[in-house]
Design goal:
24% strand; alpha+beta; eight-stranded mixed beta sheet; single chain; 6 helices; 224 residues
């Protein structure tokens, strides 16, 4: 979130971040049905580029590794994400906006920490498209001395960091497109009738050229 300014809104559940001609709204919403249906903890919606990204969060242990074999809910969540990805793939058509990754389902393996340092900061972690995450589970480079698989900064060969992922969301180069966005958005809206917390982030603003955004970012003072 480097260069974005945090603003209060008229609703206690919403925060607004502004920067580079865009506005990012982040809110806590009800999620029980959405989580059960989609297997996700956070939803990004780029309203300008009309793309949806769904993120399931996982946290490393204090030793710096997330171990899928010890996560009882992972298999169920991955089944839901595969179903969502197949559903959106069937709706994608020739002529829809280009995406580097058109499937909406992602996982973020977060660094272990007991606090969020600032409301505008993102916890350090590794982002993976669902297919990449599942491929890495079979990668021998992630196997420990006793045969178990662990995701950590020290052994994962490649991933997206906060900065790279944020730029891709901002530019609309990942996520759903065309009809798949409309149908998945409707499904999400209908499912918001549970009781648990879900984070929803909506990005709005001008669809300015990438070069213009890059110039603004280069001219943004860095925080000390």
């Amino acid at each position: 979130m480097l260069g974005w300014i945090v603003n209060q809104t008229h609703h206690a559940s919403w925060r607004m971040f502004t920067g580079f001609g865009q506005r990012l709204y982040v809110a806590n919403a009800n999620r029980e049905t959405a989580e059960t249906t989609l297997g996700t903890d956070l939803i990004y919606y780029n309203a300008t580029r009309r793309s949806l990204i769904l993120i399931q969060y996982k946290r490393m242990n204090q030793d710096g590794f997330y171990r899928p074999d010890g996560d009882d809910g992972l298999a169920r969540q991955l089944r839901r994400m595969r179903s969502v990805d197949r559903y959106t793939a069937r709706q994608t058509q020739v002529g829809h906006d280009f995406r580097m990754v058109r499937h909406p389902s992602w996982l973020k393996v977060c660094q272990w920490q007991a606090y969020i340092p600032q409301t505008s900061d993102m916890i350090p972690g590794m982002y993976f498209p669902r297919e990449h995450f599942e491929q890495l589970r079979e990668d021998p480079r992630l196997e420990g001395p006793h045969g178990g698989v662990g995701f950590g900064f020290a052994n994962v060969p490649n991933y997206l960091d906060n900065t790279t992922f944020g730029r891709l969301v901002e530019s609309g180069l990942i996520g759903t497109t065309g009809t798949s966005t409309d149908l998945l958005y409707q499904q999400i809206v209908r499912s918001f009738n549970g009781k648990k917390s879900l984070v929803v982030a909506t990005l709005q603003g001008d669809d300015m050229p990438q070069s213009t955004r890059n110039n603004e970012k280069r001219n943004t003072p860095k925080r000390s």
